[in-house]
Amino acid sequence: MIRYQTEKENINWEQVADVLRRSGLSDHSAQEQEIAFRNSYATVFVYDDEKIVGVARAISDGVFQAAIYNVALDPEYQGAGVGREMIHRLMAQLPGQNVILYTHPQTVLLYEKLGFRRAKTAMEFFQMDSEKLEWMEQEGFFMKENFRFPEEIGRADMQGPKWKK
Q1: Interval 30-42: pLDDT, tens
Q2: Domain total for the chain?
Q3: Structural domain for 47, as ranges
């Protein structure tokens, strides 16, 4: 039986780390996952009986802005509405806030169905080695360095700050 939990108490952090590892989202230890999830503003844990099969978390200022991270659901539960419910329960903890979301390129359509829109001006700075950054670029997580959309090429506001000229 599927159940959802938003509280951070009585969590098997090894199971959380395993779900994230199986999903290819993180290879951090159970102790590191516990720190990340406990320091998060909102969380959702999905159980099938006593086994954690899905997780999600959001950080937030509690008023205006939030960001969703670490959304993972075991493949055998995907396509049955469990992930959708997980996101609805996470969003319910972020009322009235603007929410950004990092996702795998393969799940863009899912989040569009949930009302998310792709951002044209989001910027990212990752603390990782060049090999991992190259993999992320190849997988489609972000644009090539110094990428410009066709309509941005030659625009005065895309030439850098006026104070630098």
Answers
A1: 999 999 999 999 9
A2: 1
A3: 2-106
